[in-house]
């Protein structure tokens, strides 16, 4: 899909991957709708895009709230490209996580992507065009200890992506899943303790930047790629997990977090 002249909606767009993806789509000639909770940070990103000569609009919304998702869909008509990027959650053992925090982890990223995509899917199918990008985490591919709630929501997002890919086949609406390795964004600052829980073996995977993630997202749309895991070391771990699940699981447990 050519993104020039298209309308793109990016969630979690106030910083990190979402902000860089919005900027890159705008640089490719798209009008970008940026969605996040922080109006102040959104305005800074819109200003940055406009200073570059791009076109963008900010929409403040808490995507953990189904009512605000519905209001957003009423405010912004179905885009040509929907990027489900918003995600929150600490890495904790299940019994160390409060029920309220588990609900929040499920609400974003999984329920936010599920409900927002549902709002736009009918219009996309009716016109016979559109693209959906779900930005996922490496924990959706490599089970690790001490991350039960967050990891479950990421596996649910993976399941949503696979289901949509089958349901939308032949409709003109495409689906991509972009899965970067560890990203040098604000995530680990916003979720203290998570970085220390990365299994030692997984630290062999190089860290990528939000700019590299943004390129992967735009490329996935333009090249109509179903799935993109990167860097290659993450892909290698994912393949080893399919070929040697017992060994891979043991190594992530052995080098990971224990009680």
Automatic annotation (TrEMBL):
Keywords: Oxidoreductase. It is an enzyme of class 1 (oxidoreductase). Its EC number is 1.-.-.-. CDD domains: SDR_c. GO terms for molecular function: oxidoreductase activity. Belongs to the short-chain dehydrogenases/reductases (SDR) family. This is SDR family oxidoreductase. It comes from Lentzea kristufekii.
